[in-house]
Structures are given as C-alpha cells and as structure tokens.
C-alpha cells in the first residue's frame, strides 16, 4: 500500500494553520514624489493588457513591464476627458462580441489624443480603485509636468502594486477573460473534462461549475504574482512531476478496467495504485504552500486545496473508472490527460501498473 509521507502531511498541516497575510505587508512607504500608482488595464487595439501606471504631478506615466526603464507613454492629465466614453463608446467594446468582457463605463479612465487618433483608455478593477484614480487626476490637473520614475523606485513600487491587485483582478470579468484566453488548449480541455465528470458523479451541476471558477480565479492570482516577479515560475514548475505522475497512473488504471472487461480486476489493488494520485496531490499542495502561501490569503489556498483533494480522492477516482454512467466522460478524461501529457510530459504505455 502506498503511504503518504510525513513531509506531505506536515505541509498540509502548515497549509491548514496558515493565517492570511495582513493587508499592506511588505509594501514600501509612500514617497512625496508620487501621487498614485497601481496596475490598470489598457485598451490596445481590440485587446486589453495590464500596465503599471504612476501619477506624478501633472503627468500620468504607464509602463508595459517591470523591466522597462522608460514609460511606454507619458500623458498630460489635463487631457483627461469624461465625455469620451459617451461619444466614442463603440471603439471600447463591440456589443456583438459575446466573449468580450463587460467593462463598466464608470470604471474607465480616458485621455484625449491628437485629432484622428484613438483616445488612451484605461480600466480599473472596481469602483473604489476608479474613484481613487479620478480624485487624484482631477486634483493634479494644472500641476507641473513631472519626469518618470527612476528605475529602482519604479520596480519596488510596481511589485507591490501587482501583488495587491492580484486578488481584485481574479474577481473581475476582464481579469478572468485574460486568463481563459491565455490558457493552453490542453489545459482548458482538461479542466472542462474534469468539470463534466464531477458534475455527473456528484449529481450536482453546480459542483463542477464552482470548481472550475475557483481554478480559474486561482490561475489569475498566480498569473499576476508571476508576471510581477513576486514569485518565480520555475518554483511552480515543481508541480509538473506529481501532476504527470497522477495523469499516468489514472490512464493506466483506466486501461486496466477497460481491457479486463469480463475477466474482472482486484479492486483493492486498483485502489492501492490510485493512492499514488493522492500522494501526488499532497505533493502539489506542498508546492503551492511553499510558493504561494506567503502571498495569498489562507481561504483562497484552502479552496484550491479542497479541489485537489476532492478530485484525487481514491474512492471518487474508482467511481470515475467503474460506474457505467460515467464511461463516456471517463474516456474523454483519459484522452484529455493523454493530450496534456503529450505537451507537458511523456505519454505512458498501456502496460498495467498492478497485476490482476
């Protein structure tokens, strides 16, 4: 029988006992040189992208990435215009595009451009953030133009801003849409297949939908933390091995059940193999705890932990493999796992991992 190591149990215990990070922790003190800064969305053609914005005196600077030493553009706040969204609303969002996120006009910050050019448009995650920006922009109208940040100050402030915005972005329509659009097909299809089989196995369609929503929210948080340099993508790469192991074990167990039709199989030995998936689940939780724990609230970490343990539960996996009404969904899940492994691991052979 496969045993769960003490290290994984220790990680889980630490995970469960972890307290939320205090708001504003690890942030640097506000300097008189800066009036306001933070992460915003910027309209770029037909798409939205994240930028780091800094308001200094009468100038609104924004940067494409933390590595940039110079701003992408610097805008005179005197060009701020509340009438742009009403007069030029069509360029903001194509109403026929069903996949386009609903961006509230009240959350848009618009600046006039030269005649004939599209205005510069930025979007905030929520009303509170929007009101803060507008109040400062109006307050700074007429003030002297100021040069952009020095690189060292910009980087430290940008990292703080991106870290703080991650939570709110994961709940915004635009943030979730950005993540879903950038998720690889094999990952998106795998999440959808898991959602479908969870719905049928539980008899509750809301269960799979809730699970899918939490996964994408969690992914959004990871995206912003990684994109800001708060965490390193290489550190999260430690989950690759346990994920691949879990996929390979499930596929081989699936083949055992399928190809032993009429001959029977030993359920206890199959469950013993499926326990390997549970062990991999604890290892994934341990990596999340180490890498993401210091940056995310414990309730968000706990939600993802619960999903991982729910999916990897041995009895549930056995039902996925054996219940007649789940055969189609089980087959679909297997092919999604194979596709995932073809991109991120190695496709396993069909040799059984337990004898029957």
Automatic annotation (TrEMBL):
Top-level taxon in the UniProt lineage: Eukaryota
Biased amino acid composition, Basic residues: 151-163
Segments forming domain PH: 33-142
InterPro entries attached to this UniProt entry: PH-like_dom_sf, PH_domain, TNFAIP8-like, TNFAIP8_sf
Chain positions covered by the region annotation Disordered: 144-163
SUPFAM superfamilies named among the record's database cross-references: PH domain-like
Official protein name in the record: PH domain-containing protein
């Amino acid at each position: 029988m496969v045993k769960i190591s003490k290290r994984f149990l220790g990680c889980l215990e630490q995970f469960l006992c972890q307290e939320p990070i205090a708001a504003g922790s690890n942030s640097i003190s506000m300097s008189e040189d800066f009036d306001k800064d933070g992460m915003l969305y910027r309209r770029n053609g037909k798409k939205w992208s994240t930028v780091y914005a800094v308001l200094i005196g009468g100038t609104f600077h924004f940067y494409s990435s933390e590595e940039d030493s110079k701003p992408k553009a610097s805008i005179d706040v005197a060009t701020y215009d509340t009438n742009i969204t009403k007069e030029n609303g069509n360029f903001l969002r194509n109403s026929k595009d069903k996949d386009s996120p609903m961006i509230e006009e009240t959350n848009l910050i618009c600046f006039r451009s030269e005649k004939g050019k599209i205005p510069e448009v930025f979007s905030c995650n929520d009303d509170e953030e929007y009101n803060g920006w507008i109040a400062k922009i109006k307050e700074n109208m007429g003030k002297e133009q100021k040069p952009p940040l020095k690189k060292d100050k910009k980087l430290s402030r940008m990292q703080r801003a991106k870290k703080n915005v991650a939570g709110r972005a994961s709940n915004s329509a635009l943030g979730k849409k950005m993540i879903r659009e950038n998720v690889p097909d094999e990952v998106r299809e795998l999440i959808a297949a898991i959602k479908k089989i969870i719905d049928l196995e539980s008899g509750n369609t809301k269960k799979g939908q809730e699970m899918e929503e939490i996964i994408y929210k969690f992914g959004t948080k990871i995206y912003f933390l990684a994109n800001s340099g708060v965490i390193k993508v290489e550190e999260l790469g430690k989950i690759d091995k346990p994920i691949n192991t879990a996929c390979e074990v499930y596929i081989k167990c699936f083949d055992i059940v399928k190809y032993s039709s009429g001959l029977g199989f030993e359920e206890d030995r199959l469950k013993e193999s499926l326990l390997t998936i549970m062990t991999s689940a604890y290892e994934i939780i341990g990596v999340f705890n180490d890498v993401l724990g210091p940056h995310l609230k414990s309730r968000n970490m706990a939600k993802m932990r619960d999903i991982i343990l729910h999916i990897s539960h041995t009895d549930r996996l056995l039902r996925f493999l054996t219940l007649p009404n789940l055969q189609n969904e089980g087959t679909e899940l297997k092919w999604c796992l194979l596709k995932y492994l073809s991109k991120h691991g190695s496709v396993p052979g069909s040799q059984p991992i337990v004898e029957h």
